Fold these 2 entries.
Entry 1:
Amino acid sequence: MTTLPGRRSSTFTRLLRHGFTDPSAAERLLDLPDLTSVRSDPVLLEALGATADPDLALRGVVRLVEAEEADERQILLDTLVTAKPLRDRLLGVLGASEALGDHLARHPRDWQALVTYEATDLHPGVAEFEHELAGADDQDALRVAYRRCLLSIAARDVCGTTDVAQTAAELADLATATLRAALAIARTATPEDAAQCRLAVIAMGKCGGHELNYVSDVDVIFVAEPADGAEESAAIPAATRLAAHMMRICSDTTVEGTIWPVDANLRPEGRNGPLVRTLSSHLAYYQRWAKTWEFQALLKARPVAGDPALGAEYVDAVSPLVWQAADRENFVPDVQKMRRRVVDTIPVDRVDREIKLGPGGLRDVEFAVQLLQLVHGRNDTALRSGSTLEALGALARGGYVGRVDAAQLDDAYRFLRTMEHRIQLYRLRRTHLVPEDEPDLRRLARSLGMRTDPVTELNQAWKRHASVVRRLHEKLFYRPLLDAVAQLAPGESRLSAKAAAHRLEALGYEDPAAALRHLEALSSGVSRKAAIQRTLLPVLLGWFADSADPDAGLLGFRKVSDALGKTPWYLRLLRDEGAAAENLARVLSAGRLAPDLLLRAPEAVTILGDPQGLKPRGRDALEQEVLAAVGRSGSAESAVAVVRGVRRRELFRTTSADLISSYGTEDSPAEQDPGALVDRVGTAVTDLNAVTIAGALRAAVRAEWGDTLPTRFAVIGMGRFGGQELGYGSDADVLFVHAPREGVDEQEAARAANRVVAEMRRLLQLPTADPPLIIDADLRPEGKSGPLVRTLKSYEAYYRRWALVWESQALLRAQPMAGDADLGRDFIELIDPLRYPPEGLGEDAVREIRRLKARMESERLPRGADPTLHTKLGRGGLSDVEWTVQLLQMQHGWAEPGLRTTRTREALAAACAAELLSAEDAQTLDEAWVLATRVRNAVMLVRGRPGDTFPSNPRELTAVGRYLGYEPGHVGDMLEDYRRITRRARAVVDERFYGAAV
């Protein structure tokens, strides 16, 4: 076939038109002598062009022809050209599977398995496959026969004779026949073992569900009983040897390759348990020890090989346990754990290509269907199918899922499974990754019938179907709950009230009757509001169920919706702003504090829809807003009402950001640095309280004195306030200092300062819907017995003559927060020599600090409190860490500028940098301090009131755990981790604070 140089042959052009990507190589193959009789046959070229990969198909034909005996080659080629069924089947397989092309090259006569086209050949079952495997009496023969059968399944698949469900069922039937053949070989090899026992093989997973992949582990469980006259002590070891031999026959790699691994790890106790058990042993385990996921796995249990009576007896015995699983005590937390996507184990570079475990993948559909089966199958036997698609259809027919949703999910699942089949078929390797290379994507797309722009069409279709799964797999649970309380058209199926209650209970709702009432109130009617709610609620219900308190989340949503439902922007915000609805669901269901703040002014929900809305606004911006509002107000009361409203709004912003960062969302993972979370909260709440005090001060002064108070006045933050480490439940510890203005009588100045303080405290504690701000001045000189306000000179005189060591220690946290900035700086200049004494502390002062700390530990811990779990005064808690750091500051602050900070974590870092603490000790103290602070914040967020120890209420304790990153069912781990971390911190405190190392 020659052409002039520089010109393409007509064959080259035809090959290009028929989809060949390397026409030159294809032209050379067609020029081979063995293909002389067909090289110009238009039918052959047309058929090659119809395959997934024409180049691969042609190479497969050439290898097959070359492998055939010389006198058989022309028969093959003649049949290929004249018999359309064979042509379509053989070329279809060769164009889709390099591995099956390899098999045909090794066993060229197997192409004749594709010639027949009888009715039984179109839809073979176990019996037909057993017939095909009947002559296989060793491992290699079984592998060859298995591949021959696989060849016929693949041919029907790629030609469209069978759909994906039929193909998966045929693969499962072939696996059944193969297991039986392997067991027969094992029995023949050890007849004495076979005589000792009755052994049944129970298929699990996709094989048990009659929906196997081309390449997949075949999950099994073995059950055995002694044969007549045999002892159990001899029968079980014999059955174990038989089972192990059967597994090796299928799993071992020989010159003919392998079939597939047989995996028995779904058995009781997994790989740590015995391979074979008696039926009574299985039942004893399932009745006492089994976890929810094991009953979920048993949904697909099906006897496939060995003793059929024993296999049926096993399934009959475990089936009732499966359908009672939803009544188990730990079902809800188990379900919540299982429902969370387990993609952390998938490498980041693979998540977007994972067709099984990735977002919108096959596992999403399978899990959703299985969970609904567990919840509703206990009362409806029609749902008890091992097949995902059959079960999905039954759920739709019974009204447990919407028909439209089920149809869309069925379509998406079929597409994704077909993709998975074609990916695996190429090299017969177990993979669930969509390929990255252009040729592989092109072959995959063409195998699915995409021809115009295969790769683009494939990516679009895949993303579209994955998106459907992501959108529907949660909605599948919740949409029928709305239908249960709605008016449906005649003939439409719906969940019964009982079934809806079962589903809500399974999803963690403690009061399903109340939840259904809320759903009815939110979604009933024909208004636009009700229609939008019906769209939002299925997704919101899923987010609520993912929290520690779904009931509270739904109730809070109803209250917010009742308050804002008539405003045009509220539902539009939730519907159109992607993050707003999920953020609201997280906030409403995580505890009491944030919802209480929101319900006092529901319009603050707009914060959740603004991409910048969760970022703290900063002190300068807040102070500008607050002082401007005070300036516009007609009275001190109205001014401070506005100020406290700003504080409430900003507290909601801070709590929401904290909760959302701690929980994470679908688009934004949880914050991994707990220290950063603590710092953000501490800074934000401190700024907020400082601004609130500044606003109250301005309002009090303005009401009586106008713009200028007769004395300069400053508020000094102390304790956590001065340290910028406030939690949600912290009071504001302060000192008040003033300095009379020039020409003002000192007594008049003192009266003015005291009146200002009294008015500020009154205004900030007025009974309103907004949370009060408690100002605590007990750290002042002489404590509660001393004057509330002092002049700067009075402070100087007191500290010079009377200051105790604990007062100097308290001043380590002092920082100006409001009022006259110059006076605040003067106060700091006054106290610096006290808190950072030149040359450090003397031995007497160190002993006094230690004595005070020991006394506080013995006297102030509340009666009955667990010292290992008390965050403030307990072992390794806040007090331990802070007193250790503060002693270092007083000892070395005069020489180490980095220690001159009011913040605990900064001082710890400075002590480490100055080599006053080892990096390990500093890390240990920091970790304990951060954890204790987070626990206190969590308690306030969850309970709506402050607390220094973990809640005793189980649901509240779980909510604290969720905030700290622990999954449901792991509160024990949380408490143990807290004890471990604080125990290590206390060891450092004992050495660094009480020991000689300081």
Entry 2:
Amino acid sequence: MAMLRRQKDTDAARRKKTGRPIFRTIFNAMMLVMLVEVVLLAVSIAITNVDGRLNQNAKDMLNMQVRNRVSYVQDLMQDAQNLTDLSEHINNTVLAMQKEGQLDLAELNTSREKSDALLTAIAPELVSTLRAKPVSGIFVVLNTVNLHNLDVGCGLPGIYLRDLDPDARPSEDNADLMIECGSSAVVKKLGITTDKSWQPTLRYYGLKDNGFFKTPFQTAWEDGARLNAEDYGRWTTSAYKIGNDSRTAIAYSQPLILPDGTIYGVVGVELLTSYLQTKLPYSELQDGNTGTYFLVSTTADEEDTSFIVSKAVTSSEDMITSEAPAGMMNCELRADECWLTLRNKDYYAVALPITLYSRNAPFSNERWLLIGTVNSKVLFAFADNVRNVIAIAIVFTLVLGALGSLVIARNLAHPVELLYHEVVDGQEKKQFPQLSHTNIRELDRLADALTSLNSELLNNSTKFLRIMDMASVELGGYELRFDTGSVYVTDNFFALLGAPQPKDHFLSVRRFEEKLSNIQLSHPCTTTAEGDKMLTIRKEGETRYIMLRVTNDQTTQVGLAEDVTATTLERMRIEHERDYDILTGLYNRQAFHRVSEELFRDPHQLGVAALLMMDLDNLKHINDTYGHDWGDQYIHRTGRCLAENTPNGTVVSRLSGDEFVLLFYGYSSQDQIREKIRTLSSAMQKSVAILPSGNELRISISGGVAWYPANGTDMDILKKYADFALYQVKRTNKGHLEEFSMEIYQQEAQAAQLRRDFQQLLTEERVYYVFQPVFSARTGKAMAYEALMRSDMEALRSPATIMKLAREQGALCEIERLTFFKSLENFDHLRSEGLVRRDTMLFINSIASICLPREDSEYMDSRWHELRRQMVIEITEEEEINHEALEVKRHAPGFSGMFALDDYGSGFANENSLLELSPRFIKVDIAIIRGIDTDPDKQQIVQNIVAYAHPRNMKIIAEGVETAAELRKVIELGADALQGYFLAKPAAVPAKMAPAAHKVIAEYSSASDSG
């Protein structure tokens, strides 16, 4: 005992040393929770990408503003450059003045008087256009000479009007307009004030300085004015000034071209930079007026990731962007976003195209863009501020949380530590203490509960024993304490297990375990899925089932023995009813599948096996004749015969009504199983039942056998094969057992697949029709076309196969309908496309015994009314003519009434068919035409047919002509029409007659004409 006590003290000291104080536990837990919350917050911010979304929102807002603005700017510039009416007016004025002898274009550059007269005449229209368009200026420059031939510094006649405030209300006397350029005479006649930088002519400084009018003029001149004047129109890609004027502008100009191609100047409009800046309000891009608009042009491709743009207009208060170098500027694409770098600062930009030129115009490579840009630090400032606020909030939360956790942990730990010391003191004094109140409800309740629990422990053990005595199920139990070596056993434990009560009053743990082990060895014992032991106790003719459950921990083992005889017997009864057929006592379907699946998991156990599917032959007759009770007796006797005449281990089952299945397994050869099956078959034939009529009834059963592993290693496959063999027996020779034949199975499978393909052909209409010409034997022209069925399905390429399946499946009417509808539809398409003449006839093969319903005929007549008048129905001699069907066809709505007797000379009675049908055309069978040039008998047959047909206004068509000799002979014998591969093969689009055949017919035609 002293040693046990010292061991307990040592364990307590170890637990005290390795345990953690409650204060640290609470504090660490609260800090962990706080850290987890902070981490979750940070992760959620990172996952939701708040920073990125805010930045993206800023980009989207900038994109939206620029997109709205670019539409406005594009409309403004497109409206400004629409000078078609003005150009036509100027051209009409020039032509009128030329007609009246007032103007000679050759003198425009040299005669001030002539040019002033023209400029004065068109000035009112220029003023009117200036007022009507959103432009700040308009101009006309006159020149009829190649610019290469002009002297640098020379002056060109022209007029340049400017309105400094286009949006203001116009003055009635044009007082708000100024003349920037124009001769004194023009200024005097117009009465418009000149600007301070006025000049009488526009100076030409050479082509290197593109200016606002030179490039369009020279381009049109060098191109020979092949295009319309507006196609040569161009906007200046950089701002320009007029003379000494400080105002900058961009301009659009296009050449003046007379209808005869004479180029005599340019006309254009101007947009002052200051005016355009009012149309590009940079304040809308970003708060604080930090945005910038650039109106630029570029010749770079749209796919370039870095491109140079030429600045035309800049609208901004940003010192960096507004003072950016004039002219060229570099743009970069980063991750499909446009960026500018100005003075080592990044600017996010939105560059959207402005469509000004047609695709084939000479200047279509000059793409105009509107760029809206904001310094990236300014654009993303809000996101940066939000990120900083979140970081400060997280740090503040950590500091405040740590302080709060320290205070809370201290307040919670103090009462628990107080109770702990009181319990330790009571343990040392060997008495349960009176625990203090902490004013914490849960701790005070815990203290009260511990006090109550201590006083009730003894009572609870007594109550448990009483409950066991009162239970309806007999229970017994034990407890082993490995730390103390004590054993507690209920009085009925050993008796419950069928063992005598031990004579020893004291049982050690080892002695008890030995006795319990002997009990388990002396009785059948199984282990359940849960690990419990099920003992079968047989004593004095009585069988009881005892469930022994054992639980273990470090120092204790507790066992409970329960008498489960009643529940076990009930479970066994239910399992038997679940697994066995009530009528025969054999396995039912569910049990057979379960047992078979277990066997198939172990191929070695199966060895050579056979699956026998069986079906009673006379059960329905017995049920109908003698009643279902006698039918049940028949089934019962069959089941008993199967069970008594099969080797032990054979799995025998009744699947349903009259179906049985047997699995022979574990054999080394098929011959061994065949011997067992012959024994079973012989016993069944000898089994006799006496019917109420006094007659003997022998068991008649049909069966199919599938072999494992020869036929398959899967149960489902074997069942399918055995069932197929059974089906073959039932269909051919009932009352026998046959083995599965793979050859027959594959033949049936192919036939079934062919039937499925045929159904697919009907459902999806997987047929199409080709047309073979029927040529006149006299002229060689195509007089008709025969529609021939084809299919794109591999297994149904042959029309004969399709017709055979149609007869087998009763689908001849569907084939008839498909043939008529498709043939008419396809041939009508050929006629509408001009691929065949509209006066040619259409021969359609019809099944002699089938006629379409009247509604089908009415539909065909309504859709192909004209074509039906030229339709000829071919009646084949492969089937006997049905008179009723023939009359329905003859009187079908819209039908021409023309019949053709196909394959004459083969099939059913020829003369009868000829008399009954009275055809317009007789098609002589290919068997007669083949080799007719060398066979006198065949020649005589054709002569007889011709002699019969021609007096009765019937035409003879020779089918299957394949050689020139055959062609000559049938023409010589009097055939009216010709058809065959030598003339033309069938095709979706009919071919013309082969040259060799045409030559033969031409020879006969010329011979006939000369004769």
